[in-house]
Amino acid sequence: MTSANTKRLQVAICGAGIGGLTFALALSRYPDIDIEIYESARALTEVGAGIGIFPRPWKVIKMLGLEADLLQVTETAVVDGSVSGFRYRKSDQYEGKDFFTLVTQGSLMLFHRADYQQTLLNHLPKRCRTHCSKRLRSYTQRQSGPIELSFEDGTMASCDVLVGADGVKSAVRAGVLGEKARWAKGEGKWKEAAEILQHVDPIWSGATAYRALIPAQKLQAIAPNHQVLHTPGVQYLGKQGYIIAYRISGSKFINFVAFVVQHHLENTTFNGPWMSTVDVSAFSSTFTHWEPDVQILLSCVEKPMQWAIHTVRPMQSFVSGRVALLGDAAHSMTPHQGSGAGQAIEDACILAAVLGHPSTDRTNVAHRALRVYDSIRCPYAYRVMEASRINGRYFTLRLDEDGAIDIDKLPPKQQWEYLQRLGHAIVKNWEWAWTTSIDTALQEALRLLES
Ligand SMILES: Cc1cc2nc3c(=O)[nH]c(=O)nc-3n(C[C@H](O)[C@H](O)[C@H](O)COP(=O)(O)OP(=O)(O)OC[C@H]3O[C@@H](n4cnc5c(N)ncnc54)[C@H](O)[C@@H]3O)c2cc1C
């Protein structure tokens, strides 16, 4: 067996979430690359919640050979052509109103997160060594020689390339920005250095999500005709927030997420823990006057988890020398387009392809492979991040940025026209997810690398 230091590259991945594990699997196709995964948690677990995967990242999943296993744990059928998905309702009134059905080209695949993670782990070869209880504190990178990693438990490790897949509070992102700020200071650019450091801390989006898994049998017993039991999924929209509900795990559970959205608090600081278990009363008051279907769902929710939705300020680059960011560490976005994990999966695909390319080695990785990754993924992921932010506005029935038009003050005919315009705006803003393909990005990355 080749020992690690005779391998072409030693890659350390910090974080074993969806992004880190998908990247490890994609990179494991190159036997001459050594892979070590460092994860801060004591064991690999996922939150008890659902996840939707759009056609672009689904293509990556197929490339990685995960499709057959994942199809065992979803009720979503793979359709390549037009497929009717979520139904949208104006629900913040006694009688809700269906106004639009999302039609995508290719299915939005729906899973339980734990099933997705388990499938990844089942496919991950043993040579990708995963070290749990290893929280990265910082790293040191010099012009040449290995990158030194320092962990909270006092231990050290080294690598040629460090990939930060350590989520929204990323220690690797703090390191990348710290390096860039030091270089700026070295050139006397103090203002630039201060601006760079402002990107370290995530910012609150003004949205708070309340997640729960509802046993489908429980809903069935109360309301056998409830539309969530008989459709691919429903989004209940209102001016103060929205609810999304769809079936997962062979229809055993309903993935329920209620969002309370306070646009005026976007980019402020959230006071309190970002994640905690709360009582339904923590958010139900926002939905008290909503339609009966919503009340039935609320009556089924137990022990919801509260998530204050944080994002990162867009940076100029995901890369610093031989260190690269991936997933939420690079572009944590609002979940209003169900695409944060999808974008992490796309990062994983492109980053693995450029690192695995036979021309990439220790000496050129910073100037070629990682620059190509950055040039392809950074602009795209931030475009999706902005589209997701805009969806958050649309889902609270606001077509305009400042919410100047109050839909409830419009006469019925105009209100209906407004809702139709909203439906079109949602599709237009979202269609990148099914009208474009990851293949083009992959080809462009390889073309740039080989040119
Ligand atoms: C309510 C909600 C619904 C969503 N729905 C969807 C959806 O339908 N579709 C979709 O595509 N996306 C969705 N997302 C977004 C998606 O969950 C995230 O974008 C995705 O999980 C990010 O994966 P990641 O691997 O980059 O980060 P994470 O999942 O955060 O993983 C980071 C990992 O790094 C570890 N870590 C952290 N710090 C360190 C350290 N210093 N050292 C070592 N390890 C560390 C953590 O323990 C964790 O395991 C949703 C998000 C929310 C909040």
Automatic annotation (TrEMBL):
Any one Gene Ontology MF annotation carried by this entry is: FAD binding
Superkingdom, natural source: Eukaryota
Keyword check for Protein biosynthesis: no
Keywords of this protein's UniProt record, alphabetized?
FAD, Flavoprotein, Oxidoreductase
Q: Where are the transmembrane segments?
A: none
Q: Where is the FAD-binding domain?
A: 9-176, 312-387
Task: List, in alphabetical order, the GO biological process terms annotated in this UniProt record.
Answer: secondary metabolite biosynthetic process
Cited SUPFAM superfamilies = FAD-linked reductases, C-terminal domain, FAD/NAD(P)-binding domain
Q: What is this protein called?
A: FAD-binding domain-containing protein
Can you name the source organism? Answer: Lentinula detonsa
